Protein: Ferredoxin--NADP+ reductase
Organism: Sphingosinicella microcystinivorans
Amino acid sequence: MTLQLAIVGSGPAGYYTAEAAQKLNGGDVRIDIIDRLPTPFGLIRAGVAPDHQSIKAVSRRYEKTALSDNVRFVGNVPVGDGGISVDELLGLYDAVVLATGAPTDRPLGIPGEDLPGVLGSAAFVGWYNGHPDFVDLAPPLGSDAVVVIGNGNVAIDCARILAKLPEEFEGADIVQHAVDALGTSQVKLIRIVGRRGPHQVSFTPKEVGEMGELARASPVVDPAAFPPVEEDEALEPGLRKVVATLRAFAATAPDPDKPVRVYFDYFLRPVEVLGEGRVEALRLERTRLVEGRAEGTGEMIDIPCGMVVSCIGYRTLPISGVPYDDRGGRFVNQDGRIAPGLYCVGWARRGPTGTIGTNRPDGFAIADLIASDITPSDKAGRTGLDALAAEKGIDIVTFREWQKIDAAEVARARGGAPREKFVVVDDMMTAARS
Ligand SMILES: Cc1cc2nc3c(=O)[nH]c(=O)nc-3n(C[C@H](O)[C@H](O)[C@H](O)COP(=O)(O)OP(=O)(O)OC[C@H]3O[C@@H](n4cnc5c(N)ncnc54)[C@H](O)[C@@H]3O)c2cc1C
């Protein structure tokens, strides 16, 4: 009997799970990869920086899985309220795996964070990457200063995109509305703030190194932020490289011919966003390290700015009927098991940590759990889903139709760019049906 499997979410975790699950039940398995968008690949398309095309190339591997006979992409199908419920999926499939990622920002939890001009990185990154949810974001780029909160690669991505000239996006698939808006940006001062010091950052060497190679921006680091240089020896090699680059920035005077400064500020934690009707400044408290943790000193400083981008992590969106850990911001699960027949994987399982590759062992582990838990039971699978979608007026997009969207995006790319994404679902649907 054929094993019927539904995977909700077509990002890395969904595709790695599908890759592993193809071998289940002696290969007698049918896998539907469902996504709320007509386009696949999750954050590979909508998160990974548009000027890091080599990383996005991993989607070629997912394409191979997507085109296998026993795998189907089912796009434009939201799971949860207003779409297909998890209970309905459990009625149609032997197993359902939630690979829905963590698409919303963790709140800052400080007064003023709802002021216009305070953006979460999910929104800002989604805007420059053309995610349909964030087309209308209109980041306020008219003031000269932006504070980016967080010390991971997402913070660096946001700062780098803000610092670049339009010409530096050659070969990138940043969407046109972002290039246009960034081309008129007045931002001259970008401050990346972290609660702890340079030894505690989560940057990787390549991302930090790029900040020293920007056409119109110079990195600035206060030498006083570093512990004694001998302490670098104890760092793991990647972090040691990052710290060496930061020390080199600290030892170099900013290039007077470059009008933009990117400050790496340490030992500061945000306590309040200040402003009348919109953000005008960020109030931060100086911290010191106590047993590796940031402890407030009571000393406050205000940084005037017209925009704050918060890059402090993400949360999975709850889905009706699925137990949710509000503190952790993800589904309640035991190593990926949520309930009989229901699993989660990737960021929806473990939270927003690790690289794209970290999702691979996750996907393979879930396939192993399904192998040991589930016996096929003659469920309707994809024919049942198609009937239910038709009943609900949901217009499914297949992988072949996504390939039409893909081809249309490539065909309308501006010179040197790999594609010009459609940013509105209706336009994607028109291309899919062409
Ligand atoms: C800004 C940013 C930059 C990054 N850059 C890198 C990088 O350079 N290198 C690297 O290794 N890693 C990078 N990462 C991390 C990497 O993107 C993640 O590890 C990975 O995407 C997580 O995979 P996932 O499948 O769990 O989630 P996602 O990639 O988020 O995929 C989730 C999918 O589920 C779909 N979905 C969500 N809810 C529903 C629903 N209710 N119904 C149907 N479908 C739904 C979404 O549309 C999406 O397609 C970056 C992350 C971010 C945020």
Observations:
- The mean pLDDT is 97.
- The radius of gyration is 23 Å.
- The chain has two domains: 3-103+316-397, 105-314.
- The chain is about 30% helix and 20% strand.
